[in-house]
Every structure is written in C-alpha cells, then in structure tokens.
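Summary of Year 1 activities. Much of the first year was spent building the evaluation harness for sequence design. The harness presents a backbone, in tokenized form, and records the residue chosen at every position. We chose the following record to illustrate the format because it has been used consistently in internal testing since the harness was completed.
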C-alpha cells in the first residue's frame, strides 16, 4: 500500500474541498512580501476539481510505483526536498506569477519510478526511452507556449513546465543516487 502517496493525494483533495487556494497558491508577489509558506503549499492547491483529479491520479500512479521500488522513507525525504527545490526554483521562472498543482511533485515521483525501473529492469529500457522522449517533446511544446487545457485550468493560466522539468529531473537523479548507494553498501 503506497501510504506516502495516498496521504499526499488525500491532502490535495482535502485542501481542495475546504481551503481558499488563493491563500495557499505559489504566488510570486506574496512570496516576495514574506509569505514563504507558499513555496510549499502551492503544490497542494488546484484550480478545479478536474485539475486535482488529473494531478492526483497521475501522482498516485507514479507514486505507487516509486514507493514500491524505493520505499516510503525515501519518498518522504524526496518529496520534502523536491517541494522545496521546485518552490524556490520557480522564483527563477520570471514569467510565472502563480502556480497551483501537484504536477511538479507528480513528475518527481514519475522520475523516481522511471529511474528505479531503468535500474531494475534492463529489458524495459527501450520503453522507458520512448516515454522520456515523449515527455521531452511535451515539455518542449509547453515551453514554447503550447498548452492544451485538459486539466481544467482557467483562461490565461498556462502549464508550469518548469515545475515538471525540475520535478522529473530531481526524482530521477535522487532515485539513481539512492540505488547506487544501496548497491555500494551491499
């Protein structure tokens, strides 16, 4: 049972049902005024029920795979580090004023799961490379301004591809380092 992943998704659903997301979203102006909690809480806020379902569903799938391969403790540490790194890193994305969603952390979980899968199942590497190429294409299109609104985002809100790129890179690197460390110590 992917406990960490389930708690993560349930937290997003609970906040969606009961909190004002405008008070918790990642918001550049508010962060610059000292509301630093938004660096972390923005990951748990969403624009619509469809948005929280898509982000939560993806995170649940990726997280279940990552948690099975890498363990709950590893995932807790990874998510804490990734939420901080993504939140702070988005400050560098000067075109971004607000961010809501679990997608950056979902991509962290996907990167961790893919790296673990790569290490444990060499026969699946071609499929993983195809998935990585598809993700790279998606990120390139999003960075270029293409943003299909399948997540139920309001008009004028684009996909934060920077959070996705940072998340998948952090997850993959951390996973590979953890696996390498385990191999050395055994």
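For this record, the design step produced the sequence shown next.
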């Amino acid at each position: 049972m992917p406990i960490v992943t389930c708690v993560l998704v349930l937290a997003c659903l609970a906040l969606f049902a009961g909190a004002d997301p405008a008070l918790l979203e990642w918001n550049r102006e508010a962060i610059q005024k000292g509301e630093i909690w938004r660096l972390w809480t923005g990951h748990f806020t969403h624009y619509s029920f469809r948005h929280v379902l898509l982000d939560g569903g993806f995170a649940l799938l990726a997280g279940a795979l990552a948690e099975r391969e890498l363990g709950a403790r590893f995932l807790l540490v990874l998510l804490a580090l990734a939420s901080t790194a993504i939140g702070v890193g988005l400050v560098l994305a000067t075109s971004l004023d607000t961010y809501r969603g679990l997608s950056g952390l979902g991509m962290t979980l996907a990167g961790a799961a893919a790296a673990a899968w790569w290490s444990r199942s060499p026969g699946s590497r071609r499929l993983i490379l195809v998935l990585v190429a598809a993700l790279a294409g998606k990120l390139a299109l999003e960075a270029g301004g293409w943003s299909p609104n399948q997540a139920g985002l309001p008009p004028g809100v684009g996909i934060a591809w920077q959070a996705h790129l940072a998340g998948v890179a952090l997850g993959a690197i951390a996973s590979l380092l953890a696996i390498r460390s385990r191999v050395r110590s055994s």
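The chain has eight helices and two strands. Quantitative recovery figures across the full test set are reported in Table 2.
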